[in-house]
Design a protein that fits this description.
Layout (H helix, E strand, L loop, with lengths): L1 E6 L8 H10 L3 E6 L1 H4 L4 H8 L3 E2 L7 H4 L5 E7 L1 H8 L6 H11 L4 E5 L1 E2 H6 L1 H9 L3 E2 L3 E3 L2 E3 L3 H11 L9 E7 L2 E3 L5 E3 L5 H12 L3 E7 L10 E5 L2 H11 L5 E4 L6 E3 L16 E3 L3 H8 L4 E8 L4 H15 L3 E6 L9 E2 L1 E4 L3 E3 L3 E2 H15 L1
Parallel strand pairs: 1-2, 1-4, 2-3, 4-5, 5-7, 10-13, 10-15, 13-14, 15-18, 18-19
Antiparallel strand pairs: 6-9, 8-9, 11-12, 16-17, 19-21, 20-23, 21-22
Helix pairs in contact: 1-3, 5-8, 10-14, 11-12
Length: 378
């Protein structure tokens, strides 16, 4: 993956070093252009260190704006009002704008990360809309303290990876549930599980990278969800069930990665006294995954089946039972005694038209495998 990173004269240029290092961690080769304004904020040596290559500060007889225009992606981060507006008008009076015009002629993907005062951001709205119509991608800034601030690195990276991917899920709508539901016992207490939502979030990210329109149905998530992923918050299993019923008809894929409580307690309207013994009566919650194919027979359904301290044969049989009961197209089974809730790793068994026993791996790696299977079967 060959990327040209253009750094312009916003104070957010100080974030460009971290961005370049993260791009390299993702396997990208980086060539950096810096504007005069950017050089007044950070020294070119800093970007030379971050990218591992010399920096383009001016155009020479090597016609650098043409030489580097036909790459996998041009990333302007941060992008000032000046560079955005000149590009909208196709003014090429500096190396970065000359590069952008040449890249547009090559139909090279261009991603811009606006970073400026909020008043300036509002003032150049027409210019950004014009460039959007021409195919330029904008990563929305963080709106804080009267400023359009540099977004989180994760938001930028996901957009970069999406624009350089094969986009196997282009045009598809993917709904992912994540986290653990909370079943209220009284106004201040409840029953929950320790699911972190990490697996569901990684699946949502990977689906976005592959071009899908992604909505995350999150139960009590404490993780930050990137702004490029739609977010619906729920608390209980009943709330999640209601939202699935409301949304599922519009989606091509549903990945049920949330740890949904199997039972709910009788609810007390007042706080239960702690000074006396209390026997809880538990009622079964509806099995959300069992209703999905009834609501949308055409949806590609991925389920997760977690057991504790069972044999592989028992785990596979449990996954098959879930497939038969729900009509799921793929079930990801795992033993929580091996890697429990909150872990960054998982040892999965994939059960679909065959059984695949995979080694212990990171959840990001597993998300790539699952999304690849989904895209191949749609």
């Amino acid at each position: 993956m060959d990327i040209v990173l253009c750094v312009t004269g916003s104070i957010a240029a100080v974030e460009a070093v971290k961005l370049a290092r993260e791009l390299r961690r993702q396997g990208a080769n980086i060539k950096c252009f810096m504007s005069d304004g950017a050089c007044n904020i950070i020294h070119p040596y800093a970007m030379e260190f971050a990218t591992g290559d010399n920096i383009i500060l001016e155009l020479t007889g090597e016609i650098e704006h043409v030489k580097y225009a036909n790459v996998d992606l041009i990333l302007v981060a941060p992008a000032t009002a000046n560079v955005i507006s000149k590009f909208a008008c196709k003014i090429a009076d500096n190396p970065i704008n000359a590069l952008l015009i040449a890249a547009l002629g090559h139909e090279t993907p261009i991603v811009m990360v606006p970073s400026m005062d909020l008043s300036m951001y509002r003032a150049i709205k027409y210019n950004m809309e014009k460039l959007t119509q021409e195919g330029v991608i904008f990563v929305p800034p963080r709106m804080e303290e009267g400023k359009a601030k540099f977004p989180h690195l994760d938001d930028i990276m996901l957009t970069v990876l999406r624009e350089t991917s094969t986009k196997n899920l282009r045009g598809k709508k993917v709904l992912v549930s994540a986290g653990g539901t909370y079943e209220a016992l009284d106004p201040v207490r409840g029953i929950c599980n320790l699911s972190s939502g990490k697996m569901g979030l990684e699946l949502a990210k990977e689906a976005f990278i592959q071009g899908a329109d992604v909505t995350l149905l999150g139960a009590n998530l404490s993780l930050r969800v990137p702004s490029c992923i739609g977010m619906v918050n729920v608390i209980s299993a009943a709330e999640m069930f209601d939202k699935v019923q409301e949304l599922i008809e519009d989606f091509d894929v549903f990945i049920s990665a949330a740890a949904v409580a199997d039972f709910k307690p009788e609810y007390s309207e007042s706080k239960i006294l702690s000074s006396r013994e209390k026997i809880l009566k538990l009622e079964p919650n509806p099995k959300i995954i069992d209703s999905v194919k009834t609501l949308n027979p055409n949806v590609y359904l991925v389920g997760f089946k977690a057991e504790y301290d069972v044999s592989e044969d028992e785990l596979i049989e449990s996954a098959r039972e879930q497939m038969e009961r729900s009509g799921a197209d793929l079930v990801v089974a795992n033993d929580l005694a091996v890697e429990g809730f909150g872990s960054n790793k998982i040892r999965p068994i994939l059960v679909y038209d065959r059984v695949e026993k995979l080694p212990c791996m990171g959840k990001r790696e597993l998300s790539r495998i699952i999304i690849q299977i989904v895209s191949q079967n749609l």
